[in-house]
Write a structure and sequence with these properties.
Layout (H helix, E strand, L loop, with lengths): L5 E4 L2 E5 L5 E3 L2 H15 L9 H12 L6 E7 L5 E9 L9 H10 L4 E7 L9 H15 L4 E9 L2 E4 L7
Parallel strand pairs: 6-7
Antiparallel strand pairs: 1-2, 2-3, 4-5, 4-6, 7-8
Length: about 170
C-alpha cells in the first residue's frame, strides 16, 4: 500500500485522494497509517527489552485485521529487531503456515532468535491445539539451524496471550 497523507479537520482524519481532495479516512486506512508509523518508529536495531514492549508492538501491528495474519519478528542475538515480516495471510479463522519458509527467512536474515505471532479476528486470544502444535513444529525446525524461538504471541483486539508466559514454549 502506498504512503498515506493524513490531515485532521474537526477531529476527523482525512486522506488525500489521487486528485488531491481530502476525504474521510476509512478504518482500514487509519489502521494502515498506524502500522506505517509503528514500523518507522521501530526500525532495524530497535531493542525489545521486555515482553510488555513486544506485546504492545505486536498488538499495534496485528489488531484490526479481519483475517488471520501470521507474522515473525526476526531478532539478532541481543534481541534487537532485524525485520518484522507478515509472512502468511489466511481467512477469518485460519492461516496456512509453512515452517520451511520461516526457516529460510531466518537464515536469509541471519537471525539469532524469533518471536512468532498471529492474530485471532474472533477476539478470543486463547491458543488452539493447532496453534500449540504449529508452535512446536516451528520451534523444532528453527532449533535445527540454531535460531531460538523466544515466544509466540496471539493478538485478539487489545488482548494478547504469550506462550512463554504460560509455559507453552
Amino acid at each position: 500500500m502506498s504512503q498515506l497523507s493524513f490531515s485532521s479537520f474537526d477531529d476527523a482524519l482525512l486522506v488525500r485522494d489521487a486528485q488531491g481532495r481530502y476525504l474521510p479516512a476509512s478504518a482500514d486506512q487509519i489502521l494502515e497509517a498506524a502500522r506505517q508509523a509503528i514500523e518507522q518508529k521501530m526500525q532495524r536495531g530497535a531493542e525489545f527489552s521486555s515482553p510488555a514492549v513486544v506485546k504492545e508492538y505486536l498488538r499495534n501491528m496485528l489488531a484490526g485485521f479481519e483475517h488471520e495474519v501470521f507474522a515473525v519478528m526476526f531478532l539478532d542475538t541481543r534481541h534487537r529487531l532485524i525485520e518484522y515480516a507478515e509472512m502468511f495471510r489466511g481467512t477469518i479463522d485460519s492461516a496456512s503456515v509453512y515452517p520451511r519458509e520461516v526457516v529460510k527467512a531466518a537464515l536469509r536474515l541471519n537471525a539469532g532468535a524469533v518471536v512468532l505471532s498471529h492474530n485471532h479476528p474472533s477476539g478470543n486470544p486463547e491458543p488452539s491445539q493447532a496453534d500449540k502444535a504449529l508452535t512446536q513444529r516451528l520451534k523444532d525446525a528453527l532449533a535445527l539451524v540454531e535460531v531460538r524461538t523466544l515466544d509466540h504471541i496471539i493478538v485478539a483486539g487489545s488482548d494478547t496471550v504469550s506462550f512463554a508466559e504460560r509455559g507453552l514454549i
